Amino acid sequence: MDEQTGIQLLKTMVRIRLAELQLAIMYKNGKVFCAAHLYEGEEAVAAGVCAHLRSDDCITSTHRGHGHCIAKGLPMKEMIAEVCGRKTGCCGGKGGTMHLFKPGIGVMGTVGIVGGGIPLATGLGLAMQMQKTDRVAVSFFGDGASNNGAFHESINLAALWKLPVIYVCENNMYATSVAVWRSTSVPDIGVRGAAYGIPGITVDGNRVDEVYEAAAEAVARARAGHGPTLLECKTYRIRGHFEGDDSLYRTREEVAEARTRDPIEYWKGKLIGDGVIAEDDFAAISAAAEAEVAEAAAFAENSPFPEPQDALALTNQV
Amino acid sequence: MAYVVVMPRMGQTMEAGEIVEWMKREGDAVERGEVLLSIQTDKSTLDVEADCPGVLAKILATPEDGEIPCLEPIGIIAAPDETVDVNAVLSDFRAQRGA
Question: Which positions 28-87 of B are in contact with A (Cβ < 8 Å)?
Fold first, then answer.
């Protein structure tokens, strides 16, 4: 990858991180009215994959989807305003964190149902193929979703029909409170691609360069009409499943150890070590992201709530 | 600028919480993200982190206060050299929240 791409990946990860930390503060201060599932520690997956996508490519996401949306180009203001239920949000404040949509840039929804986005991305891939485009669809989902029928049925069809879909499993080691080893028959979910005759790859999801390289190949394969790829990115959910989760199912030592593998620290260290950026540049990147997030938060707080007469706006009325 | 720490709302059904213990004393410096205190909800015991850096200028509520409604002030974080007028800070806070 070239230097500009490396810097861009770092910026994306920092923007996601600071947005999530801001939402954590807004949540506990009563400014977010729905559950908040935050993405801290998993930023390299969204950044590394979405760097290959055009605005006419599509993603489907999860309950932990703010990072995917930012990486796909959803403006920070529209994201935070939507999570705060404000009229200026991308869905008029009626969707919230688990229904973030912006079809014009291919954000085809964060989905509250575990595994719910996988068939949607498969359908998007079928549409793209039938329309004879070279667009691709990406489905982000977690380790828990890979044990759902929707995962297996979708990948089977996508493999059979050679659909342009990239199935990105963010293995963050926990499905709510259940450790992956308690629920999943294989240590590497990537091997499940073999069952459907497609490439199944496992990478360190905290290393954005590894994610970026693997996603490059998967996206190129899908664009060329050669079919889907299963890409497992092993990462770690630093915060609780939701804000307010006491995480009694894991030790503080385990979380502290995971923090030493921070994806932003890793990539910042790599770029500084390679002489691509200096410490000052990182400070400037952080300051710019901090300002963007603060502005978006103020924008959200100063925006009105939707009115009763807005109830049917943006809905698919028959 | 003084920042009001409130009893956090850590769940959609949480109405109030109790303070278990302050980990910081008045006058202690705090970093953003550092644990200020622990609280108990009807479901669990949780750490409350500082939203901003500064000094814990004032503790407004303790374990002896029992249940405290969510979003009620429980402390104030200020800049190291700031003189805090507690009543003024709290009335500003309530005015802003009412807006």
Answer: 33, 41, 43-46, 48, 51, 70-71
CATH number of A3-298: 3.40.50.970
Q: Domain of B58: which CATH number?
A: 2.40.50.100
**How do A200-204 and A229-234 pair as beta strands?**
parallel
Query: E strand or H helix at A20, and its extent?
Result: helix A3-28
A3-42 per-position pLDDT tens digit: 999 999 999 999 999 999 999 999 999 999 889 999 999 9
B46:A246 CB<8 A: yes
CB atoms within 10 A of CB A179: 14
Q: Which residues of A touch B41 (CB under 8 A)?
A: 244
Q: Do A181 and A155 meet the contact criterion of CB atoms below 8 Å apart?
A: no
- ipTM, 2 dp: 0.92
Range of the domain at B44: 3-98
Q: Please name every residue paired with A170 in a beta bridge, in sequence order, or none if there are none.
A: A142, A233
Tokens describing residue A168:
């990105």
